Structures are given as structure tokens and as C-alpha cells.
């Protein structure tokens, strides 16, 4: 038995497939591996391995080096001892190292695998001949276990075709002996969908990569465990705790790691970092306004609403008193901050958690926070481990370094950040270098953290020291790629320099690609710049607001200054001298901003200020003048950000703009004209959102062939947009709120996202719909939209909210890739006659006139929303309730439907269970009846499933629900009774009763009734019976009616990806196709496919034109054609 350590290894393969070759290799498996390859999933290739009686070391290694193992169980799988031994090794890796195991039951029932019966059992018994009882028992246990792992079951996919397709196929194959032809064709049609879903599921599993931002922090898990215990997360009471400790000890890191683990459990959450000094008293800004700014920052973050503005200090309590929130306030240095942001527990809803980090324990005590977690310095052993990981990339001290390493750790005062910085500065150095550094570390300690951190800085090269100062003073928390671009003309090797700084723990790159420098290191860098001169105007960077005010008003800036980062939030009113920038000829980066959006700081710029240096970055929020200085030359400019400015025109004439990549003038409401951009050939982003005076876009944008994003949203006066141009790189075009726009924009055929909400566009022209073959998302919600006759064929998201359409048009129903359809607030919508089979989400909330909804019963959907659709007829309600869903459905209702065999008043229900009722793969269907609810933000509905003893069996949570009910509504969802797959543990299927408890964060009293149906194996198979019943109950005249009403139109069939060949086929009742068993099925298929010469008629034509059956037939014919071409 391999130990867990021996099983841990580098993951060289993403997927390992265990299968019986003769059953699946040339068919199902080859298609599956092709799908894997198309999604970039790498699989282990075993074709060069000679298979014997036992698996060799190469195969064992391949299993251990794979992230996911896919076990493809077929009828003859157990005929191979090789396969069975593979299975043993896979389960061993699953247990020892948590390897993900996924199952596919291909033409075999899981119960046959579990109990080794039927054909599967016969093959197994034959394999066991001559084997020891011990080997046989291990195999039996492995098969019994793998059979309980939830997976795809091919037999379940055979019955998901709709009734029309089923009847047509049955008629087509009536002359053939089932299951030879009929079953073959029926199965292959949906096998492609199953393969696609498996590939997607595997990709999702591979993408579930946990955050690694906090890997390598010694003792972190112990900190988090203690904090979670202190937080009492299972309690509904509101708790506020403190994290206290000295600077550099790791408080912020612990808080961020805690946020990383807890945030998924809270719908509303906010991490407010580095609050130190945020309420500093500034002349000209009163205390009340400062408090408003701080509350505004928290509310904007927690509600994820930019530019939010609050007007009184009761806003937090008013908005959050009934909300469950997670708020982390980091680096608090003033009691007033807590009084402003979290004065009382009553400000927040049940179950809320507020976490405060600070260096000052008195602040916590004064605020009544008694639950305080003290972050102590690490033990000597942990401190030494931190140093060793940084210096030697191992947790223990190498031979010969024991004494000197201990001395260094002690001299660093066991400060984690200091240990990391000093350790990495000594990485790779010999022992005598370590000894030479001892005296310097000891001399510079002097109980000052800055002195410890200075060691790492001093050991950098001059270029990397300069890069360190650039980041500390200007580029901290900026995107690394953007910084690299802005510094590309410097003599700094930014790419390698960032790697060096990261290696030495002076910066890190976040998972989102941002450069992050610890604020203590930032303070060190800024202190170093302060030491450059006693006169601020002679330093490299200016970042202190009061010093910048002095330099600009007294015009004392010099050529030493290369960057200014000026927060004007709290400056009051400051006048800038007319020659403020004259002396700063080397200024390259100018950022003037408001950290707190509501700040009232004002810069008075004289009209005769006519000079700005040759800047690389110009970021000036609330720019107060109508034009840029006359002598400003933008030829070196790379990024221009001037949101909320009073600018009317940037510059005149045609300027040289070879470096310009970004222009952002959002909400510059007086902007009337965009300059000629003919020479801005490298421009990638143009943001003009909210420029309410802008009337037209210049024709010069035709030269912007690298433009990726164009945003003119809410330019309410915009009427003229250049046409007959094709911007090759444009991917996102936003024109929401351009209320005067009447014609469809034709400026690129490569757009992926097109937002045209609240415009005056009435329809999509056919010429445009045909050109936008790459469009994924179309938003055209507007009351001006009265009809929709054409739509781009391959979109996945379509938003028609608030339009005046009365029915879902055929052009939408026929979309083969549509996954999300939103028709919210379409008050004239009366009918949804069909939906694309590919659809995953339908949002029809507040369609108050909606009466009829028809769709395929057997095609699963993720979400169906019909809130406040009070006119739905009885048949539509029944269809919606019975619809197969993955997530949930919501619709008006007065009672729990009769399908739910267990019902109760209130929000919980106890269900007695007879022996043998449950299995590890059991599922359930639940419904709750919710009383009317007024909209007051996003909501969460939860379900907890417990055993009789109170042990939690499983839980579900539906977050971010936008719920507003005018009457009683049903909320229905399906789920697994027990956790499946990688989360699956041993489950007790012998429980005598099971308890379902539902909760609603609006208030549990809103749940008036609940119902549950336990889906037994019989119930799971009911879909097959329903299909059969549907077939027998439907008269033959229903099928005949298709024939009499049909046309002779052919149908284009293609490769299954949505691009169809101009090939048709004909199946005529007049054509007597007589094929004996001896002639064979394949010869008949060749006659069936006379594709170049024949077209289909009557029955087949009408079915192929049906929007619900069309994709099914495409898939079917695609696979039949492959069968023929392979022979």
C-alpha cells in the first residue's frame, strides 16, 4: 500500500481514462478525447503501452500524475483484470490525495456494476477465475464503491429526445429489428450531447482551482481555525471581533485569507483595506463630510455600486439592518472609523460578522469589542521555518547554517515580513555572507521595522531599486502589464525586475495580475524618497497632498520630479500657479484623483496655465477647465483618463498619437467633439460613457483597427455613427441609453458583445444579423423594440427586457446556441411558443400579460423565472412545474403541487423513510410557497437536510436572487440528497427519517408551506414511462397532421457546430425502401442519404423546420453520416 506521501507528485496529465478498449476506444472514447482536445484538456495516451495481466509502473505513475480520473464503465469492463487493477489504483489516489474521480456508465446499469450482475457480472466472474479470494474481494469493493459515485449514464440520454423526434425515428426505422437500427440511431443522436456535457464537466472540475494567494504562510491554518471558532459561524447572532498585533505581523494577510474562505458564504461582503489615516482632519473639510465619505466607500463596495452617494450618517443602518453581511475593516487607527462604519451591532442583520484589524488594542476595547484575537509573533521554530522557506526554499535549515540562521531569525525579531525579506535577500549566498550581514542587521534593527526591511532594498541593483520606488510611490496595486507598458521607454528591465522583487518578497503578483506591495514596504519606499531632499519639489515622486499643494501653488517643482499621485479628496480649495509645471520638464506620470468619491477638494487652475510636460500617463479626474493647456503635446501619451471633467474639446487638428492606447472621458458631460484620431492607430479602448453633449463620432475612427472596446453608453445626444467600416479588433460595443440612435451600428463584423439597450432601434436588419457571426451577447432591451424578425445566429445571450414584443419570435426559438434569454418587464408579452433546446436560463419576471408557455418537457434547463406572471394558464403552470431543471424555477402559485408527496405548513418537514428507500445517488425535488415580498435587494434561499440525530447530510443555497412577489409564489428546485463526486463521503442510507429545513433571508415567516418528493430509482426512471405514455396517449392523427401540414422544404445539415452544409435529403413515402436483414443497416443508410440530389418532403420537412426538433435531427444526421463515411 503506497503511502500518501508517495502518491503525491507533479500533475503531468489533466485526465486519465480507464476503459475497456474493445467496447469504446474507436467510438465513444475517441469522440470524447477529441472533445477534450478541443477544450484544451490533455489526456494520458496509453496506446504505446503493451497490456498484460497486471498494470505496469508506467501506468501507475500516469494515474498518480493525473488531476482527474474518468472511469468509463462498459459491459465488458470487468472482463479485464488490467481495468480492475487500474480502478484499484485510481480509488487509492482518490483516498490518499483527493484525486477527482468521475464515472461514465456506458450501456451498463450502475446497479449491475455495484452488484456484479447481468452481462457485467458474467464478465467479472470469468475474470476472477484462478484469482485469489483476496484479489476478488478487493475488486468487488472497488466496483461497489465506484458505482456509488455520481456520473453520466448513457441510458438516461437515450430518452431525452422530444416526442416529435421520437415518433419520426420510430416511423423511419419501422422496418428494422429493434434495437439494431432504431436504438442505434436514437442513442447516437443524444450521445454527442452527453460527450459535450462530460467534457464541460471535466473542464469545470479542472477550473476549480483554490486560491493560492496564501500558500506558504507558516501557521496560517492555526490562525484561521482559532478565528473561525471565535466567529461562531453557526450562530445567527451578530458578532464583531478584533484582530490585534504589531505592524508586519501578518494581520492583513490573515484577514484576507479569512475573507477568502468566508466570502462565498455571504451574499454581501466588503474588505476595506488600509483604513489608517482615512479620517485625518484636513483644513477645509469638516468632520461630518469626512464621515460621509467613509460610509459612502463601504456602501459602494458592499453593494457593488460605483459612484454611489449617501446623504446622511444613518445610511448603513438603514440599508444593512436586515442583511447578513461580512465586513472586514483592515488597519484601523482611529476609534472614529469604527463609530462611522460599525457603531452598533444593530446596524447589521442576523448572522453578520464584522472583523477589525488594528495595532491598537485600546481602540477595540473602547468600541466594546471583547472578542480579540492576538496575533503573536511566531515561535522560534515557526520563525526559523519562515526564514528557511524564504532563504533555502525548504522548511528546515541546511547543514552548517544552523547557528547563523537562528541568529538572523532572532535579530529579525521574528517579524514574518522581515524574515521573508531578509531570507530572500540572502538566498543562494554562502555562509560567510550570512555572517557578514549579522552585524548590519543587528546595528540597523534598533527596534524599527523600517530598518529590517531596508536590508532587502539595499541589496537590489540600482535599476531594481528604482523600480521598487516607482511601485511604492505610484504603481502599487496597478495591473502588472499596464505598468510594464508605461515604463517601456525607461531603462528599467520591468519584466525581470518584477520577478526579482517578487523573489525577494518585496512585491507579489495577485491572481488578478496586479502588483501588490505590502504597505510597510510602501512606507519604506516613500521614506527613501522623502530622504532624497528636504524640498519636496526636488524629489522623484510627490504623493503627500499637502506637499503637492505647496509645490503647485509656489511653482517649486524641478526636473527631478517624474511622478505625482495627488489625492484631492480632502485638500479644500487650492490654487495652482500658472507656471506650476514649467519646472517639471521630466514629469511622466500625473495622477490627480479623489480617493473618496464625495470629496469636495477643488483645484483652481488659472486660464493662463498653458503647459504640461510630455506625459506618458495623464489621469485627471474632475478636470476643471474646458480644454487642455495650449502647449500640451500628447505624442508620448499612452493613457488619457479624464472622467467627470468639464472638458469640451481635447485638442485641435491632427495630433501625432503613436503611443496612445486608452482614452477615458466618461461622464464629461460638456464634451461636444472628439478630436481627429487618424494617427491613434494603437488605440485599444475608447470610453465616452455619459458624455451627454456628444452628437457624433468622427469618421477618423475607421483608422482604429486595434480598438477593442468602444463605450458610448448614455450619450443621449449621439446621432451620427460612421457606417460601412469594419474595425477588425472591436470586441465590445456599448451604446446603452443612446436614445436618439435609430439605425443599427455597422462598424465591425467581429463584435462579441453588443449593448443597445434604451435606444430608438425597432428591429435588427437582416443584413446586420447575417454579418455578426461572432456575436455572443446582444442586449437590445428597449420599449422601441416592437418586433424581432432577425437575430444573429450564434449568440449565447439575448436581452430583450422592457421591449414591446408580444411573443417570442421564431428567429429566437431557432437559435441553436442560445443559453440565456431575458425578457423581464416585457409587459405586452403574451406567449412563449417555444424555446431553444440549448437554453439554460429564462428570465421572464414581471411579464404581467404572459399567458402561454410551451417548451420541450425533456430538455433540462438551469433556471426558469416567472415572478409576477399572474396570467399564466393552467397548462403552462403544469409544464413549468414538471420541467426538468438543474437549479430552480420560480412562478406564481397558491399551494404546493400534488406531485410533492410530503407536505407541511411552515418551513420544515420531517419525512419517515422505509428501509431501502435511499441510495448514495438518491435525489429529491423540493418546493416552498413564499408569501408576497417587496423588493429590497438581492435575496438568498437556503435548504438544510439533516438526519434524525441533527447531523447535516447536505445543504443548498441559492444566492443573489432578485425576488419581488405581488402574490404567493412557488420556488422549486432539484438536488442530490447526499454530496456527490469529490465532496462525497460515507453516507448513511439506512436513516429512519430525514428533515428538510428551508430559510429565506427576508424572514423565515415568509415561507408558509413546503413540500418534498424523494426521487427513488423508480421515480428517476419515470421520464421513460412519461415518454411512453405521451406516445400512447397521443393519437396517430397528431402525427398525420404533421404530414398534411408540411412543406417540401429541405433542411441544411452540417457538422453539428451550427455551420450547416447546403445539403438536403428526401425521405418519400412513395419511395419503397425495402432492406432485408441480409442487406444490412448501413446499405439502407446510404440510400437514405442521397444528399446531393434529393430533398425531404411532408413529415420530415415539417419536423426539420420545427425549432424544437431541428437541433436533435442535426445531431442525429451528423452521427449517421459519420457512421457511413467511416465504412
From TrEMBL:
- Gene3D superfamilies, per this entry? Helical domain of apoptotic protease-activating factors, P-loop containing nucleotide triphosphate hydrolases, Ribonuclease Inhibitor, Toll/interleukin-1 receptor homology (TIR) domain
Give the Enzyme Commission number.
Answer: 3.2.2.6
Query: Which residue range or ranges hold the TIR domain?
Result: 11-206
Q: Give the reactions, separated by semicolons, that this protein catalyses.
A: NAD(+) + H2O = ADP-D-ribose + nicotinamide + H(+)
**What keywords are annotated for this sequence in UniProt?**
Hydrolase, Leucine-rich repeat, NAD, Plant defense, Repeat
Enumerate the Pfam families for this protein: LRR_3, NB-ARC, TIR, WHD_ROQ1
Mind telling me which SUPFAM superfamilies this protein's record contains? L domain-like, P-loop containing nucleoside triphosphate hydrolases, Toll/Interleukin receptor TIR domain, Winged helix' DNA-binding domain
Which molecular function GO terms apply here? ADP binding; NAD+ nucleosidase activity, cyclic ADP-ribose generating
- Note whether Repeat occurs among the keywords: yes
Which GO biological-process labels does this protein carry?
defense response; signal transduction
Q: Entry's PANTHER family?
A: ADP-RIBOSYL CYCLASE_CYCLIC ADP-RIBOSE HYDROLASE-RELATED, LEUCINE-RICH REPEAT-CONTAINING PROTEIN
Does the keyword Metal-binding feature in the UniProt annotation?
no
PROSITE patterns xrefs? TIR
Task: List every stretch annotated Disordered.
Answer: 1019-1056
Superkingdom of the organism of origin: Eukaryota
TM region(s), chain numbering: none
**What InterPro entries does the annotation carry?**
AAA+_ATPase (IPR003593), Apaf_helical (IPR042197), Disease_R_plants (IPR044974), Leu-rich_rpt_3 (IPR011713), LRR_dom_sf (IPR032675), NB-ARC (IPR002182), P-loop_NTPase (IPR027417), TIR_dom (IPR000157)
Please identify the protein, giving its name as recorded.
ADP-ribosyl cyclase/cyclic ADP-ribose hydrolase
Amino acid at each position: 500500500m503506497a503511502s500518501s506521501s508517495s502518491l503525491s507528485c507533479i500533475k503531468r496529465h489533466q485526465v486519465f481514462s480507464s476503459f475497456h478498449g474493445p467496447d469504446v476506444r474507436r467510438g465513444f472514447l475517441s469522440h470524447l478525447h477529441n472533445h477534450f482536445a478541443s477544450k484544451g484538456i490533455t489526456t494520458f495516451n496509453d496506446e504505446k503501452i503493451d497490456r498484460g495481466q497486471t498494470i505496469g509502473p508506467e501506468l501507475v505513475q500516469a494515474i498518480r500524475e493525473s488531476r482527474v480520473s474518468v472511469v468509463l464503465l462498459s459491459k465488458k469492463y470487468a472482463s479485464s483484470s488490467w481495468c480492475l487493477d487500474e480502478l484499484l489504483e485510481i480509488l487509492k489516489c482518490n483516498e490518499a490525495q483527493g484525486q477527482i474521480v468521475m464515472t461514465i456508465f456506458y450501456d451498463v446499469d450502475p446497479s449491475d456494476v455495484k452488484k456484479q450482475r447481468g452481462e457485467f457480472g458474467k464478465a467479472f466472474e470469468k475474470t476472477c477465475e484462478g484469482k485469489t479470494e483476496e484479489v476478488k474481494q478487493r475488486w468487488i469493493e472497488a466496483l461497489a464503491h465506484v458505482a456509488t459515485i455520481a456520473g453520466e449514464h448513457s441510458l438516461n440520454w437515450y430518452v431525452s429526445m422530444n416526442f416529435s423526434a421520437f415518433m419520426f425515428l420510430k416511423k423511419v426505422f419501422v422496418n428494422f429489428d429493434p434495437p439494431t437500427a432504431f436504438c442505434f440511431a436514437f442513442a447516437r443522436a443524444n450521445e454527442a450531447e452527453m460527450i459535450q456535457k462530460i467534457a464541460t464537466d471535466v473542464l469545470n472540475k479542472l477550473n476549480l482551482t483554490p486560491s493560492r494567494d496564501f500558500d506558504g504562510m507558516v501557521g496560517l491554518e492555526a490562525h484561521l481555525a482559532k478565528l473561525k471558532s471565535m466567529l461562531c459561524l453557526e450562530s445567527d447572532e451578530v458578532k464583531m471581533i478584533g484582530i490585534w498585533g504589531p505592524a508586519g505581523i501578518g494581520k492583513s494577510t490573515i484577514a484576507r485569507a479569512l475573507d477568502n474562505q468566508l466570502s462565498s458564504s455571504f451574499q454581501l461582503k466588503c474588505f476595506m483595506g488600509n483604513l489608517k489615516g482615512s479620517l485625518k482632519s484636513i483644513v477645509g473639510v469638516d468632520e461630518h463630510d469626512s464621515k460621509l465619505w467613509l460610509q459612502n466607500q463601504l456602501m459602494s463596495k458592499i453593494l457593488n455600486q460605483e459612484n454611489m452617494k449617501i446623504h446622511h450618517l444613518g445610511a448603513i443602518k438603514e440599508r444593512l439592518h436586515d442583511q447578513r453581511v461580512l465586513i472586514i475593516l483592515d488597519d484601523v487607527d482611529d476609534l472614529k472609523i469604527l463609530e462611522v462604519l460599525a457603531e452598533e451591532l444593530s446596524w447589521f442583520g442576523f448572522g453578520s460578522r464584522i472583523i477589525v484589524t488594528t495595532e491598537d488594542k485600546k481602540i477595540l476595547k473602547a468600541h466594546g469589542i471583547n472578542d480579540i484575537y492576538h496575533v503573536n509573533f511566531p515561535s522560534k521554530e515557526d520563525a526559523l521555518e519562515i526564514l528557511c522557506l524564504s532563504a533555502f526554499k525548504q522548511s528546515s535549515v541546511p547543514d552548517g547554517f544552523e547557528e547563523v540562521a537562528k541568529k538572523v531569525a532572532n535579530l529579525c525579531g521574528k517579524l514574518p515580513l522581515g524574515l521573508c525579506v531578509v531570507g530572500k535577500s540572502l538566498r543562494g549566498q554562502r555562509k560567510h555572507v550570512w555572517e557578514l550581514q549579522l552585524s548590519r542587521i543587528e546595528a540597523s534593527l534598533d527596534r524599527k521595522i523600517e530598518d529590517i526591511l531596508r536590508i532587502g532594498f539595499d541589496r537590489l541593483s540600482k535599476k531594481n531599486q528604482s523600480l521598487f520606488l516607482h511601485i511604492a510611490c505610484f504603481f502599487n496595486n496597478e495591473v502588472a502589464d499596464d505598468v510594464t507598458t508605461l515604463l517601456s521607454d525607461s531603462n528599467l528591465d520591468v519584466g525581470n525586475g518584477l520577478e526579482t522583487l517578487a523573489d525577494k518578497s518585496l512585491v507579489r503578483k495577485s491572481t488578478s495580475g496586479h502588483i501588490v506591495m505590502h504597505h510597510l514596504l510602501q512606507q519604506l519606499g516613500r521614506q527613501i524618497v522623502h530622504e532624497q531632499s528636504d524640498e519636496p519639489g526636488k524629489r522623484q515622486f510627490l504623493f503627500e497632498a499637502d506637499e503637492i499643494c505647496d509645490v503647485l501653488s509656489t511653482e517649486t517643482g524641478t526636473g527631478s520630479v517624474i511622478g505625482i499621485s495627488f489625492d484631492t479628496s480632502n485638500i479644500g480649495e487650492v490654487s495652482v500657479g500658472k507656471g506650476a509645471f514649467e519646472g517639471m520638464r521630466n514629469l511622466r506620470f500625473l495622477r490627480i484623483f479623489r480617493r473618496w468619491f464625495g470629496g469636495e477638494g477643488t483645484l483652481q487652475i488659472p486660464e493662463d496655465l498653458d503647459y504640461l510636460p510630455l506625459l506618458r500617463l495623464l489621469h485627471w479626474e474632475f478636470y476643471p477647465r474646458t480644454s487642455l493647456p495650449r502647449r500640451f503635446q500628447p505624442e508620448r501619451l499612452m493613457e488619457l483618463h479624464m472622467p467627470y471633467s468639464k472638458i469640451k474639446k481635447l485638442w485641435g487638428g491632427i495630433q501625432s498619437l503613436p503611443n496612445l492606447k486608452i482614452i477615458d472621458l466618461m461622464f464629461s458631460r460638456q464634451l461636444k467633439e472628439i478630436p481627429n484620431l487618424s494617427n491613434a492607430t494603437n488605440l485599444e479602448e475608447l470610453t465616452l460613457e455619459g458624455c451627454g453633449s456628444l452628437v457624433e463620432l468622427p469618421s477618423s475612427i475607421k483608422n482604429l483597427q486595434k480598438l477593442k472596446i468602444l463605450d458610448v453608453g448614455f450619450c443621449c445626444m449621439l446621432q451620427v455613427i460612421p457606417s460601412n467600416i469594419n474595425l477588425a479588433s472591436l470586441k465590445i460595443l456599448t451604446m446603452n441609453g443612446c436614445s436618439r440612435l435609430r439605425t443599427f451600428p455597422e462598424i465591425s463584423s467581429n463584435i462579441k458583445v453588443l449593448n443597445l439597450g434604451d435606444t430608438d432601434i425597432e428591429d435588427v436588419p437582416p443584413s446586420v444579423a447575417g454579418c455578426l457571426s461572432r456575436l455572443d451577447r446582444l442586449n437590445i432591451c428597449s420599449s422601441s423594440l416592437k418586433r424581432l424578425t432577425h437575430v444573429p445566429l450564434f449568440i449565447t445571450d439575448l436581452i430583450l427586457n422592457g421591449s414591446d414584443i408580444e411573443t417570442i419570435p421564431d428567429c429566437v426559438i431557432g437559435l441553436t446556441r442560445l443559453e440565456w434569454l431575458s425578457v423581464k418587464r416585457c409587459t405586452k408579452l403574451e406567449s412563449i411558443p417555444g424555446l431553444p433546446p440549448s437554453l439554460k436560463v429564462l428570465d421572464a419576471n414581471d411579464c404581467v400579460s404572459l399567458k402561454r408557455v410551451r417548451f420541450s418537457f425533456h430538455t433540462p434547463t438551469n433556471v426558469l423565472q416567472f415572478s409576477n406572471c399572474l396570467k399564466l394558464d393552467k397548462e403552462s403552470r403544469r409544464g413549468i412545474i414538471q420541467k426538468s431543471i438543474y437549479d430552480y424555477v420560480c412562478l406564481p402559485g397558491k399551494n404546493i403541487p400534488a406531485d410533492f408527496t410530503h407536505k407541511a405548513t411552515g418551513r420544515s418537514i420531517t419525512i419517515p423513510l422505509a428501509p431501502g428507500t435511499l441510495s448514495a445517488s438518491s435525489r429529491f425535488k423540493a418546493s416552498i410557497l413564499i408569501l408576497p415580498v417587496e423588493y429590497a435587494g438581492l435575496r438568498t434561499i437556503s435548504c438544510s437536510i439533516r438526519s434524525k440525530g441533527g447531523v447535516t447530510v447536505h445543504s443548498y443555497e441559492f444566492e443573489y436572487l432578485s425576488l419581488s412577489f405581488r402574490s404567493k409564489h412557488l420556488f422549486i428546485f432539484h438536488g442530490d440528497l447526499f454530496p456527490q463526486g469529490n465532496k462525497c463521503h460515507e453516507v448513511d442510507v439506512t436513516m429512519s427519517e430525514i428533515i428538510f429545513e428551508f430559510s429565506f433571508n427576508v424572514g423565515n415567516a415568509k415561507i408558509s408551506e413546503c413540500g418534498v418528493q424523494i426521487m427513488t430509482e423508480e421515480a428517476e426512471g419515470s421520464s421513460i414511462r412519461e415518454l411512453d405514455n405521451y406516445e400512447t396517449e397521443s393519437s396517430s392523427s397528431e402525427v398525420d397532421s404533421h404530414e398534411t401540414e408540411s412543406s417540401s422544404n429541405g433542411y441544411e445539415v452540417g457538422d453539428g457546430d451550427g455551420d450547416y452544409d447546403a445539403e438536403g435529403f428526401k425521405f418519400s413515402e412513395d419511395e419503397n425502401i425495402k432492406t432485408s436483414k441480409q442487406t444490412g443497416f448501413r446499405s439502407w443508410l446510404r440510400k437514405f442519404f442521397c444528399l446531393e440530389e434529393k430533398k425531404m418532403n411532408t413529415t420530415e420537412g415539417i419536423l426539420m423546420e420545427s425549432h424544437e426538433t431541428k437541433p436533435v435531427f442535426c445531431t442525429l444526421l451528423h452521427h449517421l453520416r459519420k457512421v457511413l463515411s467511416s465504412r
